[in-house]
Amino acid sequence: MNDEQPPEPRWLTTEEQRTWRAYLHATTLLEDHLDRQLQRDAGMPHIYYGLLVQLSQAPRRTLRMTQLAKDAKITRSRLSHAIARLEKNGWVRREDCPSDKRGQNAVLTDEGYGVLERTAPGHVAAVRQAIFDRLSAEQVAQLGEIMKVMAEGLQPTDVNADLPWLR
Amino acid sequence: MNDEQPPEPRWLTTEEQRTWRAYLHATTLLEDHLDRQLQRDAGMPHIYYGLLVQLSQAPRRTLRMTQLAKDAKITRSRLSHAIARLEKNGWVRREDCPSDKRGQNAVLTDEGYGVLERTAPGHVAAVRQAIFDRLSAEQVAQLGEIMKVMAEGLQPTDVNADLPWLR
DNA sequence: CTTGCTTACTTGAACTCTCAAGCTTATGCC
DNA sequence: GGCATAAGCTTGAGAGTTCAAGTAAGCAAG
């Protein structure tokens, strides 16, 4: 027989709950806000905009699909669908990768770059208004550090990459 | 003629960019992580789980649709679809509101409560592992304050509610 | 050189979200 | 009462996301 009881879970303290709720509210409100802002002004959701930004900063405005997916923290499947849509808009072009016949490069077109040029100011203004105009310099630094720590803990590092005993 | 130039937008400083990127990475990674965790263990996305939690804490486990939508920071349309799905699962029931024939109440069923009981420990553990186990008490307090400020700035207060000259 | 495993990417179906439109009931005003 | 407007909620269609499955090309071992 198994007499073990599941251990009483460590619930959140009142203070932690307050923080967690505030986190959920702020992040969902902001994401909705930016999604609407960009959908209205740039004709695409926030995540798609982020893809164009990544491409615009890459050498030759070109990135391998897998790399872009990693940078943007999304699955390759999602990226495939997204690039298909952006390609239909004429903002991104696909190219075969010369060195690896399995590979695809996503390339930001001039049109895509133009969209970015036209809409970036409005987007930055929205971000600024939501965050940086409301926080002290100290808080911005704190936020940066906190988010860095959180992101590190969530990085989907290759499973087993840190498990030498499985190699 | 119009000689006005659009003012050069105030771009983000390097420090602000770093913080903004960290924010985007951490929030998308966490949301994906929790969505998968709950989809796997509770059979619903994070936001749906949040709806059940709200209901579980309301008197008589009942809430008007509009109120629930406000609490969860989602549109009424989205809520309608969500409740329809949860109703199909038998976790929520709709009731006509006695005092207002337009109104609908969402009620958490016993089954719904059961799902919550069974899955809450795992969910809390995931949240704890992603945030509270990795941050100092001080950082938790900072995060709470920062998120509170951000949420306040994004609150979709009724348009015009703060514009007395339009009344 | 071929067998088997891995990597890169795509696809389709099921599900969710958004947006605009629609229905019903409440409320204020004459 | 009768009318206009607002509030509460739903619906359907189009767009986006997820998950599992599929194709094709690299790679390593024998």
From TrEMBL, chains A, B:
* Protein's GO biological process: response to stress
According to the UniProt entry, its GO molecular function terms are: DNA-binding transcription factor activity
HTH marR-type domain residues: 16-152
SMART domains the record matches:
HTH_MARR
List the Gene3D superfamilies hit by this protein, alphabetically: Winged helix-like DNA-binding domain superfamily/Winged helix DNA-binding domain
Q: Under which name does UniProt file this protein?
A: MarR family transcriptional regulator
Q: Which organism is it from?
A: Streptomyces beijiangensis
